[in-house]
Amino acid sequence: MASVYEINKGVNKPIEFKGLKAQYIVYLAIGLVALLLLFAISYMVGVPVYVSLGIVVILGYILFAWVFKYSHKYGQYGLMKEAAYRRVPVAITCRNRRQFRRLKQKEENHDSGSDNRNDHAGSLGAAAKRA
Residue ranges per domain, the chain? Predict the structure, then answer.
């Protein structure tokens, strides 16, 4: 009897909703929840409903425009790559040579085969043989 297997063609594709991809859906959801909380707090404080509604609508439009702009500009992982690229330093400055001297000494010790751990273990082994 032949088995029937379903083929899931979209397994490795990112989640997409109305043109938004991956993390931008989460950004939009968090922004909408924040706008809902802003409206509720402004209503409880006593701000007139039409004023708070106008503020929330304007901020909601800005939120949607920002999220869609970055979703189309950077794509699925581009915004994270852009943020990581901004954190890369332009230049690495070194004010003294101490670190380079230590690296050079470690490299020379490693190349000559006189690693501190091996010397110490060897001296213990020799002392144990003499005793």
Answer: 16-87
